[in-house]
Amino acid sequence: MSLDSLRIYQTAAKISDEISNLVSGWNDFHKTTLGGQIVRAADSIGNNISEGYGRVSTGERIQFFMYADGSVSEVRNCLARAVERGLIERTNADLLIDALRNLSIQIVEFSYAILQRDTEYKGPFRERIARRRAWRTNR
After folding, report:
1. Most Cβ neighbours (<10 Å): which of 17, 36, 39, 134?
2. Exposed (0-12), middle (13-18) or buried (19+): which is 120, by Cβ within 10 Å?
């Protein structure tokens, strides 16, 4: 399976492009402040998925997937700020936030699947992913 055919990578790219298109219409001040931050964070999701996918060891792979998931949280925070500052309509932000929430779940589930295949892995991510899965499914 190639990186380009990976659903979480495709979703991350789509969200990143949508956010970039939104920010491109902002004024220069907001583009260079919050806009730059949200675009970098959104790009970071796909970049970290890509880097994790290219790693060989299970621990390194999942570490980058968790970085990607952290960037999902950063984008969600930036969207909330953009709504409060009148830069994005709440309905548009809510659609993106839902897509990001689903992507986060997919990243955690993909990480879990990798752990299930690697029965030799003894690192800390087995427990961390189990906690993340429990937290995500109890919401």
Report:
1. 39
2. exposed
Residues sharing a CB contact under 8 Å with residue 114, sequence separation 6 or more, in sequence order? 58, 61, 62
Q: Which fold has domain 3-137?
A: de novo design (two linked rop proteins) (1.20.1440)
Instruction: Give the C-alpha separation, 106 to 53, whole Å.
Output: 14
Mean pLDDT of successive 10-residue stretches along the chain, which has 139 residues: 93 98 97 98 98 96 98 98 98 97 97 96 95 76
* Domain residue spans of the chain: 3-137
* CA trace torsion 124, 129, 132, 138 (10° rounding): -130
pTM given for the model: 0.94
